[in-house]
Specification:
The protein is mainly alpha-helical. The chain contains four helices and no strands. The chain has a domain at about 10-55. Helices cover about 70% and strands about 0% of the residues.
Amino acid sequence: MTKRQYTAEFKTKIVLEILQGEQELGAIASKYQINPNQLRTWKATFLEKAQMVFETDRPSKEAAVREREASEERAAMLKTIGQLTMERDFLQQQVQGNSKGVLLRRY
């Protein structure tokens, strides 16, 4: 016998039907052929997580903060790269101007 799996929409529909209170839990369980204990578990989970509906959109705020931090870090790195490039170019010009016949080796 395989274990039945239910969609979130189906579970929500059943739990809302239970919460309406028009039928007893046992009647709903037999109507859908689901163990009453399973329905109690779904109801408890639903009620436990119901507050999340009214919370602020925390995950997207946290993602925005991470995005901003990454953007700031990227800007700082680009600034450093630009500064180092300018210093390198300046030093190359100085070396080429002072020693036109000297070959520089890179290590």
